[in-house]
Amino acid sequence: MQRITSRQNAIVARYREASRGGAGQPLLLDGTHLVSEAVAAGIHLQHVLIAADALETPEITELLAQAGSRVEVATASSSVMDAVSPVRSSSPIVAIGSRPPETRSPFEAASPLVVVACDVQDPGNLGAIIRVAEAAGASGVIVAGASADPFGWKALRGSMGSALRLPIATAASVDDAVDEARAHHAQIVATVPRDGVPLHESHLARPTALLIGSEGPGLPAHVIHAADVRVTVPMEPQVESLNAAVAAAVLLYEAYRQRNLAAQAASEDSAAHRRPAAARPYRPASA
After folding, report:
1. How many CB atoms neighbour CB 271 within 10 A?
2. Superfamily of domain 113-270
3. How far apart, in whole angstroms, are the C-alpha atoms of residue 74 and residue 81?
4. Which has fewest Cβ within 10 Å: 51, 56, 186, 254?
5. Residue 25: its pLDDT value, please?
6. Does position 287 have pLDDT exceeding 50, yes or no?
């Protein structure tokens, strides 16, 4: 197994290049949790770098066994790990993985609930949106316009591995994402800070594309006006707006609640139809 002690090593340059992210770049998987999630998701690991003093720990040993013998592995000094790990306190393991292809449509579900992140430029926020989308049962995410790279290292850490499991598509603009949603007969729900339909009066159990705007200006005006529904999360007057990821969480869990109620009602209705009718009492024919 190769041991790397110089920051000038070509492998270190590969990790630094991966940390810049962007279309076509491989994934930088920083930390035991993300590497483990990548292995579980079937992501191809191109290279694994392990801190020399962590190589024999049970957690790392088990992870390497899960990754398989074909993965190229090297150990590194603490100074090299500081150079390749972008977080403040370097992780015991960092890996480079192949970017997953866009092979699954977010609209494949019977009643899709798709989050459209519109120009969400903060990678931490984008990762948190993807994480809560999976947690609340969304069928996928479309990353539109000038949004951050959903597979950049900050977004990956923010999603805690959800980005490796949930169908994620990209769109050049929010208009393209809306067109895709309409092609799949989904209602377009625009989130607005004021004067929309109160969240508790919304109808999110039907096929839905939920549009979340950027941290500053929010959704473009023409997108808001063209939406089928404009929804507002009730807030106290002095609060201007919610963080994009927080707003997504509140909306998604209302959709989760509504959809669970609808599924429960459908199940009860189906059970009632399958239940045999009560037997009629025997009445002899009159003489």
Report:
1. 9
2. SPOUT methyltransferase, trefoil knot domain (3.40.1280.10)
3. 11
4. 56
5. 86
6. no
Contacts of 134 (CB under 8 A, 6+ apart): 159, 162, 165, 166
Tens of pLDDT along 208-249? 999 999 878 889 999 999 999 999 998 888 888 889 999 999
Q: Is the pTM of this model over 0.85?
A: yes
287: Cβ contacts below 8 Å, ≥ 6 apart = none
Q: What share of the chain is helix, strand, coil (3-state, %, to 5)?
A: 40, 20, 40
**In which residue are the tokens 């209302």 written?**
254
Can you tell me the distance from the alpha carbon of 155 to that of 124, in angstroms, rounded to the nearest whole number?
5
Residue 222's SS3 state is helix
pLDDT in tens, 112-122: 999 999 999 99
Residues 144-172 pLDDT 10s: 999 999 999 999 999 999 999 999 999 99
CB atoms within 10 A of CB 243: 12
Nearest to 25 by CA among 124, 120, 97, 123: 97
According to DSSP, residue 1 is labeled -
* Whole-number pLDDT of residue 285: 60
CA 70 to chain centre: 29
- Residue 141 contacts residue 150 (beta carbons within 8 Å): yes
What residue segments make up the domains of the chain, in order of their start?
A: 7-97, 113-270
- d(CA 23, CA 106) in angstroms, rounded, equals 19
pLDDT band at 72 (very low <50, low <70, confident <90, very high): very high
Q: Is the dihedral of CA 103, 69, 21, 24 positive or negative?
A: negative
Multiple choice CATH, 7-97, 3.40.367.20, 3.30.1330.30, 3.60.140.10, 3.30.565.10: 3.30.1330.30
